[in-house]
Design goal:
heterodimer, A: mainly alpha, B: alpha/beta, six-stranded mixed β-sheet, four-stranded antiparallel β-sheet, 10 strands, globular
Chain lengths: 552, 258
């Protein structure tokens, strides 16, 4: 293994992660000087030190007992390695899911004399370095806590355990990457559609895993399990870095050293496995799905009878195929489905709702509002990426006689279709947990659909105004500025849609006016439709411009 | 005698990409049924010109009319009767060849029977049988090129604009495409295509236009260009190199060899 090649290649991989778009505001700074990541890490380290100091001051000021502080230190220190493993694994895997198959096939790695070991270690190093500021901020946060609470030695173990944890997360991605390549080949032999379904399910599971991990709930459960000396935790290698810290916090130096060594050994085993899998399973050529020997020519759709044009149908059919077959698009499809479900978790599992809901003034339907918020955000996100997804394939649309209005309609329709799945799932949860009436359920669906239309249209308007057509290894589809403006406007639209509800509630509380949830939702829906119409018109103007001037 | 009616007219076309001039006051007329070859070094403006003819880019100044229709004013109308093959076409890789052509046919307004017959015949003619049910991701460059060509001629276009159409094609398919261009010309289809392969240009084009720095450097039949260069008995390559002022090829080769 040539160390110089390894380092140089790690730098290239990291730059390709960062330089995903030409429009990125990072392009002129970080991406030209990777050392700036270390600088950012240093700043975050300093910020972490500040927060850590503030945490200790707060705990002491609040009169926490040494036993309480000890418990909190154990939770924080023990939680960091688990969090880092999950974070590095998830970020690495999301990168892998986002990667464009075409870019991968053209990747110089496939034809340059770079050995599997150089690739695996360079890729691991690049993932670790790219996200290293997170390690630094957690270490910075722990430093004052360790020193001020008399746990300096535990802090030193934490530093080593954190670095090991980051590498464990990164190298695990390498194993999965090779396995996924192998699985793609195998499933492709079985049949293309099976692979498509597995890929979608995989993305949904990964996103659910991420959400669960970052909810904090899982980490606290694990730490409690470790704290209560549950013997089975010793058998889980992913918990060894955490056990090395909890052991030293309990003054068991030997046990701490033992788990730290085990952690390093586990990392070595993973690295060896990653190397073996890469050598054996890596497939350079992107997978092509094989559906039938002749291909299918579509017949005249029944939707034509209700006035849907052949062009619109062709465009929507193409969108659906893109959504289920393009690796970098599949993850986008999962978001409007997952987001509302995850956002509604706190409302569902909150102990308060059902009793207060029975008070009469507050309908159980109120509890579904966070879910609508999730649907709205998911729809907006999907809409914003819909235009940029065309990438360098845009000429296909530009050279055909397709009006801008038809393109916009198909994008809005498709985005709404996917988001409505999330909406219906949310409704299912709402009905199941809150036993809402049929009338309330219908109201919920009606306002949900207007929200979906408003956010989808706004998303397409932003996506067409700020498209990112660059087909890099990690396509973004909308510029960073566009996504910031879009997110801001998306929230504003949702707030404006909820204004009638707020006004009617205030009228009920202060003026004792009659309150109707249905009426407030109806008015909110009207506001949504107005925004949908405005956004639709703006989208047509932008798409017209795009179709008339192919990006150079 | 009346001159043949023009299929494509471009007048004083200029196109700026920021500070870079892609087309520089370029004028061009192509008559109906003519096969016109565009020659020029890399960056001479061939692709930009082809895109301008279809309204894929908006010229900074000048105008283009295709079959009498102003491209800037009515791009949709022009796109209805034009077929286009870009340089290195990026297709919808997540579709199979049949699905891609089916999509094009639907947008072009072909009925079920017509599109089925056309797609089947085109796939047979360009040797894609057995591969048409596979997503384009796994296709070679040449196969992708074939699909792009099929997409361009699926709707019986009156004008065909092709940017390096023979790139990556195997000899048999290249021959089929060359014959196809001839055959379409006999049916009155006007073809404008760019190429770097001068033998092909000479073999299938009625007239040639050499571009340099976004301008028309020379125009005429192969023989007219030879006379213009003062190289009556030379190959088109020598003519091209002389007209474009390319010198010192031997020195470059020597530098590369070392």
């Amino acid at each position: 293994m040539r160390i110089r090649v390894l380092l140089e290649f790690a730098k290239i991989l990291m730059l390709s992660r960062l330089r995903s778009t030409r429009q990125s505001f990072l392009s002129n700074s970080i991406t030209n000087r990777p050392i700036l990541i270390a600088l950012i890490g240093s700043i975050m380290f300093a910020a972490g030190v500040g927060f850590g100091t503030a945490t200790v001051s707060f705990l002491r000021g609040a009169g926490a007992s040494p036993a309480d502080i000890g418990q909190i230190v154990e939770t924080i220190f023990g939680g960091i390695p688990i969090f880092l493993i999950g974070f590095f694994f998830t970020m690495g895997l999301l990168w892998e899911l986002n990667a464009s198959s075409e870019s991968e096939s053209a990747d110089s790695i496939n034809w340059l004399p770079i050995s599997p070991s150089e690739y695996v270690f360079a890729s691991t190093l690049s993932t670790s370095y790219t996200y290293s500021p997170l390690v630094l901020v957690t270490v910075g946060y722990s430093l004052p806590i360790g020193i001020l609470t008399g746990n300096t030695s535990a802090f030193l173990v934490l530093v080593v355990a954190s670095v090991v944890a980051a590498f464990i997360g990164s190298v695990t991605v390498e194993i999965l990457r090779s396995l996924l390549a192998r699985a793609s080949t195998s499933f492709n032999k079985v049949g293309g559609r099976s692979m498509i379904i597995l890929r979608i399910l995989g993305v949904i599971l990964i996103l659910l895993f991420t959400q669960t991990l970052f909810s904090g709930f899982l980490i606290i459960r694990i730490i409690n399990s470790v704290s209560s000396a549950n013997a089975t935790t010793v058998l889980v290698p992913l918990l060894w870095p955490t056990l090395s810290i909890t052991s030293i916090l309990r003054s068991n130096l030997l046990s701490s050293a033992y788990f730290l060594l085990l952690s390093l050994g586990f990392l070595a085993v993973l690295a060896f496995a990653a190397l073996a899998f890469r050598s054996k399973f890596w497939v350079a050529t992107p997978q092509s799905f094989h559906f039938s020997n002749t291909g299918t020519i579509s017949r005249v759709s029944r939707l034509r009878r209700i006035g849907v044009s052949a062009i619109s149908l062709a465009l929507v059919r193409r969108e659906i195929r893109s959504a289920t077959r393009r690796k970098e698009v599949v993850r986008l499809m999962a978001i409007p489905i997952i987001l509302p479900v995850m956002i509604s978790f706190p409302a569902i599992f909150s102990p308060a709702p059902t009793t207060s809901a029975a008070s009469g003034l507050i309908s159980p339907l109120f509890l579904a509002v966070p879910l609508l918020f999730g649907v709205g955000l998911g729809t907006l996100f999907l809409g914003m990426t819909s235009i940029g997804q065309e990438g360098k394939r845009l000429w296909n649309l530009s050279s055909l006689p397709i009006e801008a209005g038809t393109v916009v309609t198909s994008k809005v329709l498709f985005t709404s279709l996917i988001s409505t799945i999330g909406l219906v799932l949310g409704l299912g949860l709402t009905v199941f947990f809150f036993q809402v009436s049929v009338m309330d359920a219908l109201t919920f669906i009606a306002v949900g659909i207007t929200l979906v239309l408003a956010e989808a249209s706004l998303g397409v308007a932003i996506g067409s105004r700020y498209p990112d057509f660059s087909d890099g290894p990690r396509p973004r589809f909308v510029t960073i500025i566009g996504s910031i403006i879009g997110a801001f406007l998306g929230v504003i639209v949702m707030l404006l849609m909820s204004l009638p509800l707020v006004f009617l509630l205030l009228g009920r509380i202060f003026l004792l006016l009659p309150f109707s949830l249905q009426l407030s939702f109806f008015l909110g829906g009207m506001v949504g439709l107005i925004f949908a119409r405005i956004s639709y018109s703006l989208s047509i103007r932008s798409v017209n411009g795009i179709l008339r001037e192919l990006p150079n | 005698m009346d001159s043949p009616s023009p299929a494509i007219e471009a007048e004083h076309l200029s196109k700026f990409y920021g500070q870079v001039l892609g087309l520089n006051d370029l004028s061009l007329t192509v008559t109906k049924g003519e096969v016109r070859g565009l020659l020029g070094q890399n960056g001479s403006g061939k692709s930009t010109l082809l895109k301008s003819l279809l309204g894929l880019i908006h010229p900074s100044s000048g105008w283009v009319r295709v079959l009498g229709v102003d491209v800037q004013k009515a791009p949709m109308e022009v796109r209805r009767f034009v077929g286009y093959v870009p340089e290195s076409p990026r297709l919808y890789e997540f579709l199979t060849a049949t699905e891609y052509l089916d999509f094009i046919a639907d947008v072009r307004g072909l009925g079920y029977e017509e599109k089925k017959e056309r797609i089947t015949r085109l796939i047979e003619s360009l040797d894609l049988e057995g591969k048409q049910g596979e997503t384009i991701t796994g296709y070679s460059q040449g196969m992708k090129q074939k699909v792009a060509i099929m997409g361009a001629i699926l709707h019986h276009p009156k004008i065909l604009l092709m940017d390096e159409p023979l790139n990556g094609l195997d000899p048999k398919s290249a021959r089929v495409v060359k014959e196809l261009i001839h055959s379409l010309a006999r049916d009155g289809v006007t073809t404008v295509f760019s190429t770097h392969v001068l033998e092909i240009a000479e073999a299938i084009c009625d007239r040639l236009t050499i571009l340099q720095n976004g301008r028309v450097l020379a125009e005429g039949t192969a023989q007219e260009l030879r006379e213009k260069a003062g190289l009556s008995n030379s190959g088109l390559e020598d003519v091209f190199l002389k007209l474009t002022g390319t010198k010192g090829v031997e020195d470059i080769v020597e530098a590369l060899r070392r």
